Amino acid sequence: MPINIYALFTIPVLILILGEILYCVFTKKNYYTFQDSVSSLGTAIINQCVNLLVSLIFFPAYKLINDSTGLGLPETWWSFVLLFVGVDFLFYWFHRMGHKINILWAAHMPHHSTEEFNYAVALRASVTQRLASFFFYWPLALFWKAEYVLPMVAFHLVLQLIPHTRVVPKLPRFIESWMNTPSHHRVHHACNKQYRNTNFAGFLIIWDKMFGTYVEETEEPYYGVTTPPGSWDPLTINFQWWGYLFSDMIHTKSWIEKFKLWFMPIGYRPKDLPPRKVYSRPDGVKQVKFKTTEFPHMRGYLVTQILLSMFIMLTVTATDSPLRAFDKFFVSILLCSSAVLWAGILESKKWALSWEPFKNFAVVYLLSYLILEYLDSFQTAAVLGVVVLYTFVMIWFLRITKKVYRGNLINF
């Protein structure tokens, strides 16, 4: 298996996010909201676990392609530069099609579902987009080994974190002319009518200029989608558009339409179904962002949960992780459950308070089992520390919950 680039860059990415948050706090820039950031980071944790599964599927497929063709470029610096450019070019077309076709938009929309634009948003990637993207990258396996293609795709994706910020203004023109800068990518994420379906570049903005999809940032953007998910739940965010498409497939009476709708332009519905309602902010009206009433006293607990879950995620995604596939699967399920429960806490769902203790206990039990199973592992001491911390966090949560119940702050 190739090296896991995502795991290597997890710590630097978190430091970059923390740096941007601190900058926004000290300069009083409202570029982050607590609820949106928790949702984005929870979605990111799930996505990283899924990325591992995707690699397990596509690595042997790409290897088979490369072994079968007998083609191959020499392993030189210019060959890897060419590979990077190839990834960037194919990403442009994958990204562009992701904004044109229903089935690909279903895979890409979660990334655009937030009404914020910051480094945490960059991590809000769909669990199905990575799977869809590898169907576009397969031509690269004709000329490069799978152990080079997959890490380069991952590295290219990590680089795309950089333009996801409002902190950096327009850069000098000699940089803006060829690179996908924060200014260019703000335009891409914008919901303003004049900005929609533009600036699809990953790293090089030249593709947009060559193929007529480039638009310069002139008006301040606002962010989101025309059919917002209205939830912090990562499952709702990830499968909202898939749900629309499956619903249309079931309700249309035309067998042709049941197949056709997946490959039609975004928003297309079968002729026997009414048009889908979309939101379009009128000119001059301030955007009202999605916000929910959360359980009180929970923010410190949620931040601690995210940090601990990030470490647990690394035990799954690390290239040299000693865990078996079976173990990784169960840890991933618990991480997914965590993100869903965090959303429930943010939305004041009573079931979240009921299930969170069981999830916490399951995490402690599973980690304790992994310590016994991999006693000689280099991660044993660190995981043991997480178990101890998680035990204290369990007690902390029960104390907070008691306050919430005592204050009659739950709507029964």
Strand element count: 0
Task: Describe the sheet with the most strands.
Answer: none
Count of helical stretches: 16
Based on helices, strands and strand pairing, what is the structural class?
Answer: mainly alpha
- Proportion of residues in extended strands: under 5%
Number of domains: 2
Roughly how many Å apart are the termini?
50 Å
Order of helices and strands: HHHHHHHHHHHHHHHH
Helix content: 55-70%
Mean pLDDT: 90
Question: What is the molecular shape?
Answer: globular
Low-confidence stretches: none
Radius of gyration: 22 Å
What does this structure look like?
Helix 3 crosses helix 7 (146-159), helix 13 (299-317) packs antiparallel against helix 16 and helix 15 (350-373) runs antiparallel to helix 16. 61% of the residues lie in helices and 0% in strands. The protein is built from 16 helices and no strands. The chain has 2 domains: 5-211, no CATH class; 299-406, no CATH class. By secondary structure, it is an all-alpha fold. It is globular.
Topology, pairings included?
Blueprint: H1 5-27, H2 34-69, H3 77-98, H4 102-112, H5 119-122, H6 129-137, H7 146-159, H8 173-176, H9 182-189, H10 206-211, H11 234-251, H12 255-260, H13 299-317, H14 325-346, H15 350-373, H16 380-406
Helix pairs in contact: 2-7, 2-11, 2-13, 2-14, 3-7, 4-11, 13-14, 13-16, 14-15, 15-16
